[in-house]
Design goal:
The chain is of the alpha/beta class. The protein contains 11 helices and 21 strands.
């Protein structure tokens, strides 16, 4: 989901199979034990989570995209920017393994660090492991959906957690690359009340999102992985009232919530999508009413639901681990895992927008006003089942009730999900006459840009300001045997397939910063 990398919700949710977790400070096992040497089989995923984990081919089929290698747009000529704290030291090598496994074309990946190079990678730092996982999930998801698109990986030297921390560096970095990207994918977030004031959030927003809209860059953000609540400033305790996350709450950003997708071996749905939430220890898509932003004009038609507030999310895509994308990362030793959270849903939508950009031959830019006019004929799939209730590993429902998925717009899934076979052409048609030229094959936006052969590590760049030293979130603890897992990025829920004597068990790890992230 979005988490900031403060891991996505700030809580480590217990596994679907009831696996317990220990605080990060109790780390005893190597993170490399949380992955397996081969991609999980459908049978392993079904046994672990009750749902099929998805290959790139199955995921594309589930969203109405043509098979890999078939005629049709792939995102060619489009650049997607992925913004993360630190990045991953092995992302180039991991992509090579991923591409070989799934017959994907080599990715045109560039890594830039406009706000300063991240410190050298530390495999014992759970925060760094979490952000490396987030990086892997974001990049591999976009590549699976839009294999022809170029990805600009934008790393910062400071961990994004709750409140202001990490955002000055993120905004500085995003401003530096606006001329070089067509889509910005943000799998991070902070709970609105963790900032000093609503005006502090508005000031941050004004520094980047109006400019992105003006130059035609589409901005997509994760809505969180803790349903109607999210973390307080300590990154561990949830607010006892309904809250939402920023930047997803900004009306100039397209907010992405979570669904559960149930498909067969061929990627075809065997049941309608439902809201992500309501299952023990499995996380829940973020949604609710902003305390900072008023209702934008594009939500006037759903005023009965959002009231005078900006409502979140706008749309919702695959976020449940029971139906997550298989991914590969070797930054902690190597292995295959399964993604989840709105940090998975966000790059998924970013990839679809890249395909639409290619089809249009231009930047489609700001989408929210168009999304609310598309309807079913335009590829919007209304979701009417489930809720984003947050339930802990022991089966206790959070006292703050979630929102149910109902006909029309709701605060669990927004307008619903998408069918790309209709969504892409409808989006292109709706934006005709309101597009701007693609960034094209522009060179790196700053002298510190590095190609795929160079990992996102090196000497420390300009240091963070006072009080912005990186830190890690403590994972929740539950009864039973425990495993120490790295904290994920803001708002993200990460699922891990863990090889064990009795087979594979699925775990969701979430960091308070909402991006979904992975191991």
């Amino acid at each position: 989901m979005s988490r900031r990398h403060r891991p996505s919700g700030a809580v480590l949710c217990a596994a679907l199979l009831g696996m317990s977790v220990l605080p990060a400070s109790a780390a005893a096992a190597s993170p490399s034990t949380f992955a397996q040497p081969r991609p999980p089989t459908p049978q392993q995923c079904l046994a672990a989570s009750g749902g099929r984990c998805l290959t790139p081919a199955a995921l594309r089929a589930a969203y109405g995209l043509p098979p890999l290698g078939a005629p049709g747009p792939t995102g060619k000529g489009v650049t997607v920017g992925v913004v993360v704290s630190f990045g991953s030291p092995t992302i180039a090598a991991d992509l090579a393994v991923y591409d070989r496994q799934y017959a994907l074309p080599a990715l045109d990946l560039q890594i830039v660090s406009p706000a300063g190079k991240p410190p050298p990678f530390d495999s014992h730092d759970h925060d760094r492991l979490g952000w490396a996982g987030e990086t892997t999930l974001d990049v591999e998801m976009i590549h699976a959906i839009a294999p022809g698109a170029r990805i600009l990986l934008i790393t910062t030297p400071v961990s994004e957690t709750e409140g202001l921390q990490g955002f000055p560096e993120i905004i500085r970095s995003e401003n530096a690359v606006l001329g070089s990207v067509d889509v910005l994918s943000q799998s991070f977030a902070a709970t609105e009340p963790t900032f000093d004031s609503a005006d502090q959030i508005r000031q941050l927003s004004r520094q980047i999102y109006p400019r992105a809209k003006a130059v035609g860059v589409t901005v997509v953000s994760a809505s969180g992985d803790n349903g109607p609540v999210d973390a307080t400033n300590d990154g561990q305790t949830l607010f006892a009232r309904a809250v939402t996350d920023w930047p997803a709450s900004d009306p100039l950003v397209t907010a992405v919530g979570g669904t559960r997708v149930q498909v067969g071996a061929d990627g075809r749905r065997i049941a309608p999508d439902s809201a992500w939430g309501g299952r023990a220890g499995a996380g829940a898509g973020g949604g609710g009413r902003s305390e900072v932003f008023g209702r934008p004009g594009f939500q006037d038609a759903v005023a009965a639901v959002v009231g005078p507030h900006r409502g979140v999310p706008d749309v919702a895509l695959d976020a449940a681990v029971a139906g997550g994308l298989i991914i590969y990362g070797s930054y902690s030793g190597g292995g295959w895992t399964v993604g989840g959270g709105t940090s998975q849903a966000t790059p998924l939508l970013s990839g679809v927008v890249a395909i639409a950009d290619e089809k249009a031959g231009a930047r489609l830019g700001y989408l929210n006003d168009v999304l609310y006019r598309l309807g079913a004929a335009g590829g919007i799939r209304d979701i009417t089942a489930g809720s984003n209730d947050l339930v802990d590993a022991a089966g206790h429902r959070n006292p703050v009730p979630g929102y149910g998925a109902t006909p029309g717009y709701d605060l669990a899934t927004g307008l619903g999900s998408i069918d790309a076979s209709r969504f892409v052409p409808a989006l292109v048609a709706a934006r005709r006459g309101h597009t701007l030229p693609l960034a094209g094959a522009a060179g790196p936006p700053d002298p510190g840009a590095r190609g795929t052969a160079s990992p996102p590590a090196g000497p420390v760049g300009p240091g963070p300001g006072p009080g912005s030293a990186p830190h890690q979130r403590v994972l929740s603890r539950s009864a039973g045997h425990g495993l120490a897992l790295p904290v994920l990025g803001a708002g993200a829920a990460v699922a891990f397939l863990v090889a064990g004597v009795l087979g594979i068990r699925t775990m969701i790890l979430r960091r308070r910063r909402r991006s979904g992230a992975m191991r």
